[in-house]
Structure formats: structure tokens, C-alpha cells
Input
Amino acid sequence: MTWNQFAGGNGPQPGVDYEAVPVGTALIPGGGSAAPGIVDISNCAQFWLENPELNYGLIVKATNEAPNSSQNHFLVTSERHRGGLDIDDTRLVVSAQIVQLIPVIATIDVDEVQAVEFDSQPAIHYALEYTVGTNGVVDTGARLVGNGGTMQFYDPAGFDTGKTYQVSLAL
Output
């Protein structure tokens, strides 16, 4: 689920769609550092055990993200047991990195066939779209999963110089 899908195009509102006061905050280090930022959610878990009908889950929200930014925070979660914990102790692990989700594209020739080239982020799903005049955005149906390197998209209907292509997230 994306931020916009959570509560529509204007995004969720604090105090309406989620609690206005965070359970906690953690600094996610940059530069590929694996140093953890830790937030204790024990009180939430205890409350949910006592009131399961009120367990709406958690959201992780960046505090410095600009609205409509093409830069976003790629989050991966997992639950796991760590050595030294009792069998009923589970940790929710959230790994985060800042990624450029909507890539910059270039039109190139590959073996005399035109294509759209872009730098991808690993494991991000991309879609190729285009616009013609003011007719809105058309999905070509082409999909790729980023590999962290330069990738090329081809329009399945044939590349058309009258179209303005864009690469977006495939949701």
C-alpha cells in the first residue's frame, strides 16, 4: 500500500487517519549504515492483546518527506526472533533507505529500436506510460523490476515519437 492509497490523493491526516502523536521516532542513518534506529512498541502490543478489535497496525512515516516528491523511503519489514530472546519475544524489523522512486529517463536507440532508458532501484516495480497531448496518461502494459542498474523499456505497441513517455511505479 502506498501513502496515497492509505487515505486518498491528499494523503492521510494526523489525528484523523492516524494518531497525531507518534509512538516513537528513530533516526534512520544514511550512507548504507546498518546502525539500528529503535522504537519500543511494547505498549501498543499490550494494548492490542487486551483490545484486539482496536489493532489497526502501525505506519512508518518519514518526517522530512516533501509532498508529491519523487524521492521516497523504501521500507522492508520482517518479524524475527533473535538469539537470547525468549521464544515468545518477537521483534519487528524495519529496514529503510531513501530511494529515487520515479527515475529520470532518456530516449535512446538500442539496435535501431527506440527505447526509454532509466536508472533503476533494486526490487522496485516500474511501469511504462505515455501521454499524447492532453489526453491523460496511458499505461503501455510494459513492466520491469529494478535491478539497481540501467534498464531499458520498450513500448509494446512500438515506440512513437509523438508520445511523451514516463516511467512510474507499478502498483
About this structure: The mean pLDDT is 74. The chain has two domains: 3-100, 105-169. Residues 105-169 form one domain.
